[in-house]
């Protein structure tokens, strides 16, 4: 999937991945896509909850080799 | 209108210091307006240097590498050893340090209020504390908490 910005949140634990995502999104414009990679297994549920509460769009969430990859579209 | 989270932070040990800062920073990331009122031992979390310790004494739920009776845990140096071990473990697991979380809270606009009564009680000085905080009392807390969607006493 194409994205405009990438965030490496590997090795970070709650709540740092969410805080970094928030910061990254703040530096982007509406409609752009953020790719975030995390190793915290709690981030799967947390990122979805974050998106639902902030109105950003979780386009895709997947796992490969203990890494969680998210594509989030910033709300317009 | 933004949701509001009001927290009272009343404890100053390392373990109890985390929940207020974790919840406040996360709520701010979720676009909540957040205030934390620091009172009694929680007030020490606003000092320039956070010196929060952890004590295994009288805390049977704390996971220990080897079972340790209270009589051993009360020996001099046990508290600083437990604190050191806990901090190392947190670092290894990618858990943020308290100063780091506190900075993130401030950056995110979390309002921190120091209990003036506790400042007086413990003879603290305003210059002991970090910049950007306010001083107030119970009525100050209620002005915000009265309209909060979530209120927590920690």
Structure keywords:
heterodimer; A: 76 residues; alpha+beta; 2 helices; 34% strand; globular; B: 154 residues; alpha/beta; Hypothetical Protein Ychn, Chain: A; 6 helices
In short:
Chain A is of the alpha+beta class and 76 residues long. Chain A has one domain: TusA-like domain (Translation Initiation Factor IF3), CATH 3.30.110.40. Chain A is built from 2 helices and 4 strands; from the N terminus they run E-H-E-H-E-E.
Could you explain how this protein is built, in words?
The complex is a heterodimer of chains A (76) and B (154). Chain A has 76 residues and is of the alpha+beta class. Helix content of chain A is 30%, strand content 34%. In chain A, helix 1 links the parallel strand 1 and strand 2. The radius of gyration of chain A is 11 Å and the shape is globular. The mean pLDDT of chain A is 96. Chain B is of the alpha/beta class and 154 residues long. Chain B has a domain of 107 residues: Hypothetical Protein Ychn, Chain: A (3-Layer(aba) Sandwich). Chain B is built from 6 helices and 5 strands. In chain B, helix 5 links the parallel strand 3 and strand 4. In chain B, helix 1 runs parallel beside helix 4. The longest helix of chain B has 16 residues. Chain B is globular and about 50 Å long. Chains A and B meet through helix 1 and helix 2 of A and helix 1 of B.
């Amino acid at each position: 999937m194409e994205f405009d910005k990438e965030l490496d949140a590997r090795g970070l634990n709650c709540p740092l991945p969410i805080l970094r995502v928030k910061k990254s999104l703040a530096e982007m414009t509406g409609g752009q896509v953020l790719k975030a990679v995390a190793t915290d297994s709690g981030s799967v549920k947390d990122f979805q909850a974050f998106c639902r509460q902030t109105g950003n769009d979780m386009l895709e969430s997947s796992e490969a080799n203990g890494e969680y990859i998210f594509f989030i579209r910033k709300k317009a | 209108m933004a949701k509001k989270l009001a927290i009272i932070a009343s404890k100053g040990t390392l373990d109890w210091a985390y929940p207020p800062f974790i919840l406040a920073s996360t709520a701010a990331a979720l676009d909540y307006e957040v205030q934390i009122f620091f009172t009694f031992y929680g007030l020490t979390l606003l000092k320039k240097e956070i010196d929060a310790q952890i004590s295994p004494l009288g805390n049977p739920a704390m996971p220990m590498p080897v079972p340790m009776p209270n009589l051993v845990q009360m020996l001099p140096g046990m508290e600083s050893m437990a604190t050191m071990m806990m901090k190392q473990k947190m670092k290894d697991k990618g858990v943020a340090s308290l100063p780091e979380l506190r900075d993130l809270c401030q950056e995110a606009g979390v309002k921190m209020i120091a209990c003036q009564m506790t400042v007086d009680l413990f003879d603290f000085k305003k210059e002991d504390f970090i910049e950007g905080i306010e001083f107030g009392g119970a009525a100050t807390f209620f002005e915000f908490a009265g309209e909060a969607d979530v209120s927590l006493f920690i």
